[in-house]
């Protein structure tokens, strides 16, 4: 297997994103059409990014990129190749991922 960790940290490819109060290096791209198919139907209209990094992120972590907040919703472990791949969806604070629906009376 080819370890591409050097590319993830190469200044020609990587950018800085902020999470948990610290800046980390990552390659950030918009999702391809195939990757968008993994998203739930209601999430496909929101802005979404793909994050490739060797830093550890957790699901539901907030990530700040170009002045916008995103939430990590999907993870793929490509550790054998030197990085992990995350999908993050733009979060504007109005959504609540754990709403429990409406209360019946």
Write the layout of secondary structure elements.
Blueprint (H helix, E strand, L loop, with lengths): L4 H4 L6 E5 L2 E9 L2 H4 L11 E6 L8 E4 L2 E11 L4 E8 L15
Antiparallel strand pairs: 1-2, 2-3, 3-6, 4-5, 5-6
Description:
This protein is mainly beta and about 100 residues long. The protein has helices at about 5-10, 35; strands at about 15-20, 20-30, 50-55, 60-65, 70-80, 85-90. Strands 1-2-3-6-5-4 form a six-stranded antiparallel sheet, with no helix packed on it. The radius of gyration is 15 Å and the shape is globular. The model has no long low-confidence stretch (mean pLDDT about 80).
Keywords:
105 residues, mainly beta, six-stranded antiparallel β-sheet, 2 helices, 6 strands, 8% helix, 41% strand, globular
Share of residues in helices: under 10%
> Globular, elongated, flat, extended or rod-shaped: what is the shape?
globular
The overall average pLDDT, rounded, is 79
Oligomeric grouping of the chains: single chain
H/E element order: HEEHEEEE
Task: Find the structural class using helix and strand composition.
Answer: mainly beta
Largest sheet: 6 strands, antiparallel
């Amino acid at each position: 297997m080819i370890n591409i960790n050097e590319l993830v940290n190469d200044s020609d490819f990587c950018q800085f994103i902020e999470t948990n109060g610290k800046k980390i290096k990552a390659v950030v791209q918009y999702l391809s059409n195939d990757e968008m198919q993994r998203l739930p139907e209601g999430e496909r209209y929101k802005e979404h990014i793909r994050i490739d990094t060797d830093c550890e992120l957790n699901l539901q972590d907030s990530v700040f990129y170009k002045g916008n907040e995103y939430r990590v919703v999907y993870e793929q472990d490509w550790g054998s190749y030197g990085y992990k791949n995350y999908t993050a969806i733009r979060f504007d604070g109005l959504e609540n991922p754990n709403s429990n629906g409406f209360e019946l009376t």
